[in-house]
Each structure stands twice: as C-alpha cells, then as structure tokens.
Amino acid sequence: MNAKAMRQLVARYRVEDGKGFSLADHDPADTGGLNLKKSEAAALLREGIERLARDQDMLYAQDRWAVLCLFQAMDAAGKDSAIKHVFSGVNPQGCHVASFKAPGPVELDHDFLWRHVAALPARGQIGIHNRSWYEEVLVVRVHPELLERQKLPPRLITARIWEERLEDIAAFERYLARQGVVLLKFFLHVSKEEQRKRFLKRIEQPEKNWKFEARDVAERRHWDAYQAAYEAAIRATAAPHAPWFVVPADHKWFTRLIVAGALAQALEGLDLHYPVVSEEARAALERARVELG
Ligand code: ATP
Ligand code: MG
After folding, report:
1. Measured in whole angstroms, how far is the alpha carbon of residue 238 from the centre of its chain?
2. DSSP per residue, 126-171
3. 137 CB near ligand 1 (under 6 Å)
4. Cβ neighbours for 112, distance < 8 A, ≥ 6 positions apart
5. Nearest CA to ligand 1 atom 7
6. Rounded CA separation 91/247 (Å)
7. Would the CB of 111 count as within 6 Å of ligand 1?
C-alpha cells in the first residue's frame, strides 16, 4: 500500500471536529475495504514499525517535540496488544509507557490531572498512556460513587461537572499543543459481541486465564452508559491539535495498522531532521578525527 492510500485510510478514522460525532457511524468490524491475509497485514505493519523507528531516532536527536499517544477502550478491546506490537521497534530509551489504574489515596488528595502531568513525555520522547485523564469523564461518570471519593469541596460538584471537566480537558490539551506536545488519542472501538467472545477465550484458554476479571464482565452491564460517555467526550474534545482516532477494534490486525499509520503520519508532519552541525562543531569534529589518527 502506498503512502497516499494509507493516509486516506487513516483519515477515515480521524476525528478533529466533534460536532455531530456519533459512534453509531463507526463500525467496530470495519477493515476499510482491505481484505488482507495475516502475513500481508504483518508485512504492512512491519513497514510502519520501521518507519516509526527511523522517525523516533530523529525526534530524539532533535529534542524539540514530545509525542503523546493515549489509549482508551472498553476492556479486551486490545489496548495492550496494540501497544505491544506498534511500539515493538522503538528505542526504549526514547519511549515511556504509563498505565493508569483507579487512583489511590495520594492521588485522590490532588486534582485529577496531577498524576497525568507527572507522566507527560519530555521533549524528544514518545509517551504512551494506557488509559488517561479521560477516565475522569468515563468510568467516574458511569459510576458517580467514584466522584464522592474524590474529596472535592461539595459546592464544586454541580450538575455541570462533566461539561466542566470536558472543558478543562480540552483547554489542557490546547495548552499541551502550544507547548509542542503532539497528542494522538486512540479510542479502540470494539463491539459488545466481540468483547463477549474475547472474555470467553480468556476463560477457556488457560494461558489467558490471568487476563480474566469477573469485574470486567459486571462492567458490561454499563455498556450503553460507557458508549454515551465516550461519545460525549469525543464530541467535546476532538480538535485539529488533539485529534481522536476512532479505530475499529474487532480485527486486531486492522487496529494495529491504523494506530501505526496514524503515528507515522503525525511524525512525518513534524518536519523531523537531525540537528544541523555548525561550522564550529564541524571543525571540532575534524580536530578530533586528527587526534584519533
Ligand atoms: P487490562 O485489563 O487489559 O489489564 P486495564 O487498563 O483494564 O488493562 P485494569 O487494572 O484491569 O487495567 O483496570 C484499571 C481500572 O482502573 C479500569 O477499570 C479503569 O476504569 C480504572 N481507572 C482508571 N482511571 C481511573 C480513575 N481516574 N478513576 C477511577 N477508576 C479509574
Ligand atoms: Mg481491565
């Protein structure tokens, strides 16, 4: 597949204007008309991974932009495996993964962005956030009892709290963009039926048992509330400087392809190059060569 075709494919899933966004328009089983064999999909992904490795090297050397990929999804949508595959070729020295679980007592004593800010990538680095500040308008919205544990002064908990949080998130993301943090937000969109099959596999295959959590099955009862919360979040926060990628997730090979493609394109757009060596530095290199013989 050439670069132009890949760009067009990724563009189908990119949302940078949330107005009128509806999840119903996005089919979790979509494969963009591609019908690839496993080996073909793997070869295509490998190409993407190699490109990513080359660009990452320049990102690191240039030390100007930071890149943050955040992943949100229902359980078993494939966040972990997308991260494992797409980033398999990057230099660990220039990359950092942070997974966000339910906040503990220290975290609950701070504003909700506190722990996320602490995990932001430095310039030259790629950050991968497995869950993110969006949990604050997803799981917390679906389970309001979590909000009660957040120790907010009661008068700040109003009927507008979700709207306010989404506003704050959008403002924070604009700030990040203005600081040179390139943000890519991936929602791995899996269907309820595919999730059911994956949970069953976790029960049936002994090597997958460790991944199974009864709590995840209980969470399925809130499926529609989660979908509504995701839709509201994407509507309120999709922007050209902070795009969402609503990635079909019923076919894992396709999910990985789109995530790798989106990332490769974002890096290409940064005009990355190795730092130009000054005349002075070149002369110093020459002197060093002479000394080394
Ligand atoms: P996996 O199940 O694939 O290992 P995971 O991301 O689901 O990965 P878990 O440890 O199972 O990891 O779950 C983390 C849990 O923490 C999720 O249920 C998530 O909703 C919850 N969580 C994350 N952030 C918050 C938050 N700010 N407030 C409350 N719960 C949160
Ligand atoms: Mg889980």
Report:
1. 13
2. EEEEES-GGGGGTHHHH-HHHHHTT---GGG--TTHHHHHHHHHHH
3. no
4. 103, 133, 136, 150, 165
5. 75
6. 25
7. no
C-beta neighbour count of 59 within 10 angstroms: 25
User: How do residues 85-134 score in pLDDT, each as one tens digit?
Assistant: 999 999 999 999 999 999 999 999 999 999 999 999 999 999 999 999 99
Read off φ and ψ for residue 282, nearest 5 degrees.
Answer: -65, -40
Ligand 1 contact, 162 CB (< 6 A): no
Instruction: Tell me the CA–centroid distance for residue 245 and ligand 2, in Å.
Output: 21
CA–centroid distance, 101 to ligand 1, in Å, is 4
Provide the 10 A C-beta neighbour count for residue 97: 16
Q: What is the pLDDT of residue 148?
A: 93
Residue 84, ligand 1, Cβ within 6 A? no
**Nearest Cα to Cα of residue 11 among 276, 283, 273, 269:** 269
The pLDDT score that the predictor gives to residue 2 is: 82
CATH number at residue 55: 3.40.50.300
Whole-number Å distance, alpha carbon 72 to ligand 1 midpoint, is 10
Crossing angle of helices 161-178 and 223-237, rounded to 10°: 50
- Give the structural domain span for 29: 3-292
In the reported structure, the alpha carbon of residue 216 is separated from the centroid of ligand 2 by a whole-number distance in angstroms of 6
For residues 262 and 254, the answer to whether their CB atoms sit within 8 Å is: no
Report the domain count for the chain. Answer: 1
| CB half-sphere exposure, 178, CA atoms < 13 A | 6
Residue-wise pLDDT for 25-46, tens only, equals 999 999 999 988 889 999 999 9
Looking at residue 3, its pLDDT comes to 84
Is the beta carbon of 102 within 6 A of some atom in ligand 1?
Answer: yes
- Give CA–CA dist 10/55, Å, rounded: 18
**Percentage of the chain lying above the pLDDT 70 cut:** 100
pLDDT (tens digit per residue) in 148-160: 999 999 999 999 9
On whether the CB atoms of residues 262 and 184 are closer than 8 A, the answer is: yes
